[in-house]
Design goal:
This protein is mainly alpha-helical. 76% of the residues lie in helices and 6% in strands. This is Transmembrane protein 17.
């Protein structure tokens, strides 16, 4: 097996570092309390080694993420099948024909990254990654889900009656409506629970930071006192 190229490994690690620093910058602007943590990380301080502290990970959010993974796969294939059916048998208008595949493609690209950030941020208590999950939930996933709801009363380009007259029609597919409504409800709950989890995690990280600093300052003071003796 050929060894991995150092240049490729460096490029990958560099890209991950840029993403992490970008998320950290965004989380610092949204939650000013984390600025001390970010500045300490920039100064090369070691990670917190405190034990017996309260776990800040959110169990409700983790359960939502678990169900969301399975439902996102189901919803994607359902929407794709209905989209093909509409385009093949219903003669949809050009706007729907262009927007639907485009938005579904954006959804498929963003959703795995969003869920990954949610899992990593929640389980490992990483505020930047959880912030990325929350932002991706608000934009673009919720607006895309809204689009597939408001486009349900689909306008057909034209339908020929028995008399040869072309009329405009509309149709609603119940599976489309039900699937999109469940999705938007799930995303809305994730946005609320995710924000609450972020606030709890930020407070926990700030508390750990101050406890770590107090412990380090106490250790330094004890060391100086011992040297004097």
């Amino acid at each position: 097996m050929a060894p991995r190229s150092p240049s490729k490994a460096a490029a990958r690690s560099g890209g991950q570092g840029m993403v992490a620093s970008g998320l950290a910058s965004i989380s610092g602007k949204l939650f000013p309390e984390t600025r001390q943590l970010i500045d300490s990380a920039d100064e090369g301080m070691e990670e917190f080694t405190l034990t017996n502290t309260t776990v800040a990970s959110s169990l409700p959010l983790q359960m939502l993420l678990y169900f969301n993974i399975h439902y996102s796969i189901f919803w994607t294939f359902l929407t794709l099948a209905i989209m093909i059916y509409k385009d093949t048998y219903l003669g949809v208008n050009s706007a729907y024909r262009i927007l639907s595949p485009l938005l579904l493609s954006v959804w498929c690209l963003v959703e795995p990254l969003r869920l990954y950030f949610g899992y990593v941020g929640n389980l490992q208590e990483k505020v930047p990654q959880l912030t990325g999950f929350w932002l991706f939930t608000l934009l673009p996933q919720i607006p895309i889900a809204f689009f597939f709801i408001i486009s349900l009363p689909l306008r057909i380009t034209g339908e020929t009656t028995s008399g040869g007259e072309v009329i405009q029609g509309s149709i609603q597919l119940p599976f489309d409506r039900a699937g999109s409504i469940v999705l938007i409800v799930m995303l809305g709950i994730e946005a609320i629970v995710g924000y609450i989890a972020l606030r709890v995690m930020v407070k926990s990280q700030v508390l750990k930071f101050h406890l770590q600093r107090t412990r380090d300052e106490g250790a330094v003071a004890v060391g100086k006192q011992a040297n004097r003796v």
